[in-house]
């Protein structure tokens, strides 16, 4: 009986061994910070995108590997880790799209293991229904899609698909990654504000897929660069098949996020602000019905490096391993 008690105590203190590839990038550094304080995680390896190798990573014997690496690197490395029995949470876009033919046109490469696209669990944590606990491979959503899908997915079957879905989204410059480029330098961005990637941003097909829009519904996605280091502010304009009230939308969001500890839905007419979520793992959503309920403006804000990347990856890790969802985050 005493031995059984010792075994139980050992199980309670056992930690999941984790390795991080891409630990020196913005999202990777946040992963290291969050996992280092996680009660049930032990970091056994942390590597830059340029310096890590499969052999070095595998030598650390991780249970779970986080890949904060470029798209093509993740597409190559994740299958090798899965074949060796290591679970993978990938923060790149390598496994987010379900259709292999989208990779050459949107990401610029043929997918090396297209059969894994059907297996990968799209890790928009709050909208997963038990899939994460059985997942070997999690595709962590992109930052813009996270802000958009949290706001619009609960409204999917109310949206009028004969009308365009318009998304005006703004991101801090860290969303472009850690790279030397004049376009992202202080002198170019300070006091400036500009649109970019219209009609060709990699997150567009991910948003279309997540909203089940098909190819016929017009999606107008216009990303912008804010002269700030982090945060995403997405303003969405949608039309409805049948008129809805602010009370209807409040009820829909309450059903979707009533038990979601990291999503805050504001009262109708109250719009969120970046300062409420920057440097936190939270998302905030605001809404206002217009034109007698025929249309609405929805606003969503997140921290692009946390809820849009690292902290959402930790949420997915927690659900994958059976830990409290906010462990390491709250």
Q: What this model shows, in words?
A:
With 330 residues, the protein is of the alpha/beta class. It folds into 2 domains: 2-140 and 309-321, NAD(P)-binding Rossmann-like Domain (Rossmann fold); 144-302, Dihydrodipicolinate Reductase, domain 2 (2-Layer Sandwich), CATH 3.30.360. It is built from 11 helices and 13 strands. It has helices spanning 2-13, 26-36, 54-59, 71-83, 102-107, 116-119, 143-152, 186-189, 203-210, 246-257, 310-321, and strands spanning 16-21, 41-47, 64-67, 87-90, 121-122, 137-139, 165-171, 194-195, 219-225, 232-239, 263-265, 283-290, 295-302. The strands form 2 sheets. The protein has a 7-stranded mixed beta sheet, with helices on one face. The chain has a 6-stranded parallel beta sheet with strand order 2-1-3-4-6-5, with helices on both faces. α2 (26-36) crosses α11 and α7 packs parallel to α9. It starts with a helix and ends in a 9-residue tail after the last helix.
Please describe the structure with a list of short key phrases separated by commas or semicolons.
330 residues; 7-stranded mixed beta sheet; 2 domains; 6-stranded parallel beta sheet; disordered N terminus; Dihydrodipicolinate Reductase, domain 2; alpha/beta; 11 helices; Rossmann fold
- Sketch the major β-sheet: 7 strands, mixed
Per the CATH scheme, the topology name of the largest domain is Dihydrodipicolinate Reductase, domain 2
- Rounded radius of gyration (Å): 20 Å
CATH homologous superfamily annotation of the largest domain: Dihydrodipicolinate Reductase, domain 2
List the uncertain runs. 1-10
Integer tally of domains:
2
SS-derived structural category? alpha/beta
Q: Tell me the span between the first and last alpha carbons.
A: 36 Å
């Amino acid at each position: 009986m005493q031995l059984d008690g010792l075994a139980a105590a050992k199980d309670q203190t056992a930690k999941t061994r984790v390795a991080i590839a891409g630990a020196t990038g913005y999202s990777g550094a946040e992963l290291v910070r969050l996992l280092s304080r996680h009660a049930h995680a032990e970091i056994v390896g942390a590597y830059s995108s340029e310096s890590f190798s499969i052999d070095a990573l595998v030598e650390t014997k991780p249970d779970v590997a986080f890949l904060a690496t470029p798209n093509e690197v993740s597409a190559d490395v994740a299958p090798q880790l899965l074949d060796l029995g290591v679970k993978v949470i990938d923060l790149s876009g390598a496994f987010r799209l379900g259709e292999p033919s989208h990779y050459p046109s949107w990401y610029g490469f043929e997918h090396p293991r297209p059969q894994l696209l059907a297996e990968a669990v799209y890790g928009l944590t709050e909208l997963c229904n038990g899939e994460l606990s059985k997942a070997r491979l999690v595709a962590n959503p992109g930052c813009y899609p996270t802000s958009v899908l949290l706001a619009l997915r609960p409204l999917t079957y109310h949206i009028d698909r004969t009308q365009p879905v318009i998304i005006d989204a703004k991101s801090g410059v860290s969303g472009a990654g850690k790279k030397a480029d004049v376009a992202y330098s202080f002198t170019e961005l300070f006091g400036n504000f500009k649109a970019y990637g219209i009609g060709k941003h990699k997150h567009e097909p991910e948003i279309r897929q997540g909203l089940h829009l098909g190819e016929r519904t017009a999606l107008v996605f216009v990303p912008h660069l804010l002269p700030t280091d982090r945060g995403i502010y997405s303003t969405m304009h949608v039309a409805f098949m049948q008129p809805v009230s602010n009370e209807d939308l409040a009820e829909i969001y309450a059903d979707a996020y009533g038990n979601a500890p990291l999503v805050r839905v504001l009262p109708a007419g109250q719009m969120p602000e970046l300062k409420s979520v920057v440097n936190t793992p939270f998302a905030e959503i605001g809404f206002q019905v217009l034109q007698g309920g025929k249309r609405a403006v929805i606003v969503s804000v997140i921290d692009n490096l946390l809820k849009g990347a690292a902290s959402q990856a930790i949420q997915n890790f927690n659900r994958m391993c059976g830990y409290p969802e906010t462990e390491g985050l709250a």
